[in-house]
Amino acid sequence: RATKGGEEVRGYAPSMGQIFMRRFQMVTQFRQSLEDGQVSVHYQPKISLPNRQVAGVEALVRWVHPEFGRLGPDEFVPAIEAAGLIGVLTEFVLEESLKRVRKWLDEGLRISAAVNISVRNLADEEFPAKVAAALERFDVPPSLVTFELTESGVMSDPQKALPILRELSALGVELAVDDFGTGYSSLAYLRQLPVDQVKIDKSFVLGMGTDLGDLAVVRSIVELGHSLGLTVVAEGVEEDVARDQLEAMGCDVAQGYLISRPLPEDRLEAWLQARTA
Ligand code: C2E
Ligand code: CA
Ligand code: CA
Ligand code: CA
Asked: Which superkingdom, per the lineage (predicted)?
């Protein structure tokens, strides 16, 4: 068992130098790793409440690195962002997602895909035009694409983000504020953003069964969201009880391990087939 500051811990914890080298390698190898097929997109289904139909999927990036093994986005997205490569990542995830949505449309299914974007994508003035071009290329209606942007991301530089968000919104894509409740946005501010959805941060949803404070936060976000005409999505739905409580509150969409973990393409197809059979 590891002890604080003990030998065992020191044996496993990477040094600053190792962390730096690892980040350096990730950043320099990223483009090649896309070409080599090490980076892929997993999809996590979301269901509508109360009818429990599939409402869409969220695209979540994964990297199986030859040396470092499976990397979660929390381990490499910040490095990719800092290195100015987020545009490359977002383009990849968007194209993969559009391919999926197109395939579903060809099969007669209307399933939307949500792509996470970073505030750094909004610093690219060309971003809305790139999105429009990709929608056209894959012949996907904009309403079947959602961009999720964290609350802290929107708030970090609202003056810069706002015009780009307006352009995206004008294209007809949906915009969602992710991790809502963890930042400092006021109700007044949310009203000024052209957003369509709020996603309640999973920490509140995970805690709502045992913590009355979390339950109150979830309830008030559902009410606030609806009073602003927004679709309210809850992430981190792991238990039946949570789903039932959310349904009773009028929350519109649920996402979480109870419904499904994020799945690679083939397993998602199997999940969808079992579900719609
Ligand atoms: P997020 O956008 O808040 O995504 C939800 C995270 O919660 C995902 O972690 C998902 O696997 C996890 N999750 C889903 N359901 C449950 C549940 O029931 N319980 C618990 N405990 N967790 C659940 P993941 O895939 O590790 O992604 C972490 C974060 O990395 C994402 O948080 C998002 O901010 C970022 N990210 C992922 N893919 C991308 C991407 O393509 N681009 C960018 N810019 N960021 C990404
Ligand atoms: Ca998200
Ligand atoms: Ca809109
Ligand atoms: Ca989130």
From this structure: Bacteria
What percentage of residues in the chain have a pLDDT greater than 90? 81
DSSP string, 133-190: HHHHHHT--GGGEEEEEEHHHHHHSHHHHHHHHHHHHHHT-EEEEEEETSS---HHHH
Ligand 1 center from residue 74 Cα (angstroms): 8
Atom number, ligand 1, closest to the C-alpha of residue 117: 44
Higher model confidence: residue 181 or residue 137?
137
Handedness of CA 69, 72, 75, 76 (dihedral sign): positive
Q: How far is the CA of 179 from the centre of ligand 2 (A)?
A: 7
Q: Which of 177, 235, 239 to mutate to test the pocket of ligand 1 (most atoms within 8 A of CB)?
A: 235
Residue in 41, 44, 93, 116 to alter for ligand 1 test, most ligand atoms within 8 A of Cβ: 116
Ligand 1 atom 30 nearest Cα: 73
Place of tokens 């949500």: 114
* Packed helices 127-138 and 158-171: angle between N→C axes, nearest 10 degrees: 20
Q: Is beta strand 253-255 parallel, antiparallel or unpaired with respect to 231-234? A: parallel
Report residue 186's pLDDT band, with 50, 70 and 90 as the boundaries.
low
Is residue 26 scored above 70 in pLDDT?
yes
Whole-angstrom Cα distance, residue 238 to residue 246?
A: 12
How far is the C-alpha of 191 from the C-alpha of 274, rounded, in Å? 40
DSSP 75-132: HHHHHHHHTT-HHHHHHHHHHHHHHHHHHHHHTT---EEEEEE-TTGGG-TTHHHHHH
